[in-house]
Amino acid sequence: MSKVLLTGFSSFGVVVSNPSQRLVEYYSQNPPSSVTLDAVVLPVVWTELRRSLIDLITKASPDYVLMLGVAASRNYWSVETRAKNVAGNIPDALGTYPESSILDLHGNEIENVTLPVDALITAISAAGLPAQSSNDAGSYLCNAALYRGLQIGRQMDIPTGFLHIPADQETYAQDNPELACFTFDQHMKALEASFEVLQ
Questions:
Q1: Which residues 6+ apart lie within 8 Å of 74 measured at CB?
Q2: Are 86 and 143 in contact, with CB atoms under 8 Å apart?
Q3: Looking at 48, 111, 164, 192, which residue is catalytic?
Q4: Rounded distance, CA 181 to CA 194, Å?
Q5: Which among 67, 70, 139, 193 would be 20 to 30 A from 42, CA to CA?
Q6: Catalytic site residue 181?
Q7: Given 111, 142, 181, 187, the catalytic residue
Q8: Which long-range contacts (CB under 8 A, 24 or more apart) does 149-155 make?
């Protein structure tokens, strides 16, 4: 049985309840049957992210790293294909801005995802949920986590990837009818399908 390190993010800004955090917390208490799981919530803090990931991945020594984050403007599950060596001038949960617009001055411009993107899309779609590939993980902490995770994964030979999930009914303080919202049960269904790919 494969060992998977599953990460999500805590709340930030208008995201008062991050579904990626709730998924991590749920599976910490209710482990899936298809994989062995380490599930950890990452801080939405620029200065803490790199060290947190190095410590987590080194300690867990997983077969796969699967990261989660919320992409509230999307109405489908996004299987990211790459991360960029950029940091947007966006404050984190503590109101702190990144020290540089580049994540790693000596790093590659692009780090490509090493999880099976097509297989994940097929599995989530087969579960009755919309899924697409994405070549833009943004310029916030999700992209930074993926970039750093891919760097570490390459050094340790650990396939690594990222799923961006849409909002659900608890994501915002008030419902936003302009955004398509999944239920938390649907998020669980999509994640269970992903675990099956990685087993």
A1: 164, 166
A2: yes
A3: 164
A4: 20
A5: 193
A6: no
A7: 142
A8: 149/7, 149/53, 149/57, 149/65, 149/67, 150/83, 150/111, 150/112, 150/113, 150/114, 151/104, 151/107, 151/111, 152/53, 152/54, 152/57, 152/58, 153/57, 153/65, 153/114, 154/111, 154/114
Catalytic residue among 80, 111, 181, 187: 80
Strands 110-112 and 77-80, by their bridges, are: unpaired
| 80 flagged as catalytic | yes
Q: Write down the pTM of the prediction.
A: 0.94
Consecutive 10-residue averages of pLDDT for the chain (199 residues): 95 74 94 95 92 94 96 91 97 94 97 98 98 97 97 97 87 59 91 97
How is residue 199 annotated by DSSP? Answer: -
For residue 147, which amino acid is it? Y
Question: At which residue do the structure tokens 């936003």 appear?
Answer: 176
Domains belonging to the chain, first-starting first, are 3-198 (3.40.630.20)
Alpha helices in the chain (DSSP H): 19-29, 46-60, 117-126, 141-156, 184-198
